[in-house]
Design goal:
This protein is α/β, with parallel strands linked by helices and about 450 residues long. It has 11 helices and 22 strands. The strands form 6 sheets. It has a 6-stranded mixed β-sheet, sandwiched between helices.
Amino acid sequence: MKTRNLIFVLLTAIIVTTPLFAQLKSPNNRADYIIIYPNEFKQSLKSFIEWRQAKGLKILACDLNDIYTEFKDSLTNQENIKDFLKYAYDNWQSPKPRYVLIAGGVNYIPTYRVKSDLNILGEDTISIEQYYVMKDESSAPNMMIGRIPARTQLELEEFLTKTMNFEDNFNSLNNIYDGTFFSDYKPDDGDYFETASNSIATKYLCGYRVKQISLNDSSKNYGTKDDYFSALNSGSTMVFNFVRSNSQLWCYKNSIYADEIASLQLTNKPFILSTIASTQSYDNPSKKGIIEEILMKGQSGAVATIAPSSIVFSYSSVNLIGNFFNNCIINREPTIGEAFFKSFKQEINSDYQRYCLLGDPALKNPFFGTASAIEPVDMSKVIIFPNPASDFIEISVGAGSEPALTGEIRIMNVFGQIVSLVRAGFEPAPTIQIDVSGLAPGMYFVRIGDKVSKFVKL
């Protein structure tokens, strides 16, 4: 009898002291990256978590039910998730969490909805993920948050595979373009859409391989949606859409519909998409929006999107997208999340807060590793001879401790158009000769990485 009682006491102690939840309030927790997922997606995340951890990020994956169990004092599930993320940021061990991934569509994990200040336009509420990591509606996010709006396990698994392949095998994509810029046209707007699109292209991708497509049939860049699809199939690292839209279509002219994107056959050349377009929502549990369709295309389509989930005004949005391109291509922030959220922090306004990152916030910025351009070179140590030149120029880099020159040398005209592109691999003290005999007389620029010098063609 004593033995039975002892066993009963021991079993009771085990049952009572074993945690029934994940202990998310433990001050001993530490993570660089928090993943929130529904229980149904647990196994689908396993390979992705191991892959991210192998790259040096400490991950804590949190079952949605555990969050609801431990954080249940607020009136809504959205507020309970927000309470959890605030607690983790404020109380977990340092360094504080940097990334948050919501792994699942709104049919599993709710989006954070707030009252819209544009109800005069028929918009009552808006869904914005970064409110989960904002102290209040006027502050900047304290963590970089993204959502993968997968509605099934298969969609999640395919998207995570696409993410891993894009980051690990980017160079093997052999993209034709570094950027594709697609602009809408409506006579009432004149050439505003194309002009604003071109301003971003020339300011941040001068000397890169750029495809510009305008739906204005009087533009020198005129093209159709089929030309846009062709550019995507050719491979484009960054894609920018400046179009009128709603949740189911892009473009006032030559419209592209969500159902069309769903059935579109694209090559397996994923891209990073940013848009200035209104109401690309992903919060309808019964029907996918166009932004979801371009993301959930197996191993093709977008691997990340920066897009508004509600009505935005284009004038201020141009600055946000410009900041994003600047942080990706000029500043070369390590991840897409850092490039986007640093853009967000540069100026807080109601338009900026309506933009969301869909995809992995820790996705490596392909320009961080100088995927299509070379590492910066000190142009004071680069010699262009002869200058002026008539038939050829020679470009040389100093020997010894100077940086080796590898990658691409671009020659551009005064309009920023590439007229000659040389892919080179150099040992120290290299010299390369480039034929310029076919160029028209005038001034030209030589771009090496993010450094630019010039010469005169006679």
